[in-house]
Amino acid sequence: MVLRRAVVTGASSGIGEATVRLLRERGWEVLGVARRAERLAALAEETGAEVLAADLTVAADVAALRERVEAWGPITTLVNNAGGAKGSDRVEDGDVDEWRWMYEINVIALQQVTAALLPSLRAGAREAGHADVLNLTSTAGYFPYAGGGGYNAAKFAARAVTGALRLELGGEPIRVVEVAPGMVRTEEFSLTRFDGDRDRADAVYEGVEHPLLAEDVAEAIVHAVELPGHVSNDLLIVKPVAQAAIHQVHRDGLRVKD
Ligand code: 8X3
């Protein structure tokens, strides 16, 4: 039996949770990591995934993750999904705590977790022939927008780390894959960004025919890591069709031209 064992961060909701579910459906062994133990326990119960409650911005928790994975055995795939946005202030009004949090979770945690788990990924690559580090970035890492400065900066940085890692791992059978979603309607992304303001969160997706769902992005993630081991799908930009570009969102339905 070929080893297929993944660690997925940010597993308690949204894209991470959907990825855990899909990988489990497809027969993978999965360890889901997130801060919220109760949600993880429910996910473990439903899917049979292993889970670990950890705050990946805390060094001791990253060390605990490393120990847990080393005890679990070699892994073939790391999905660095934990991340998020807080606030939509203009640069001149940016809240330093929000900006620091975004850099911590989208960049530093990604680096810390990757460094901690690379020995287990190398062990997995020895066994399975290849391994993957898959990082969730964002279209916000490609195109800045007004009110996006802090999040844009963090996701541009996450892209840079991903590119550097691919070069550094050159010559090893380890794929470094970037998945950059555009507008995804998850239960929490915009609510977190707007500090629980449901109306502002809903307005982001208003009128958009079929915004992406977490499950759509999970499909793209699982596709990339299930490709034959010699195929590196370096970058997947995933948007709803209604979002022709980050600045061009069609909110009045999709129609075939007469
Ligand atoms: C989410 C995409 O456009 O809300 O990563 O910044 S956007």
From TrEMBL:
SUPFAM superfamilies: NAD(P)-binding Rossmann-fold domains
Pfam families named in the record: adh_short
Signal peptide positions on this chain: none
Source organism, top-level taxon: Bacteria
UniProt GO MF annotations: oxidoreductase activity, acting on the CH-OH group of donors, NAD or NADP as acceptor
PANTHER family noted in UniProt: ALCOHOL DEHYDROGENASE
Sequence similarity: Belongs to the short-chain dehydrogenases/reductases (SDR) family.
Name of the protein: Oxidoreductase
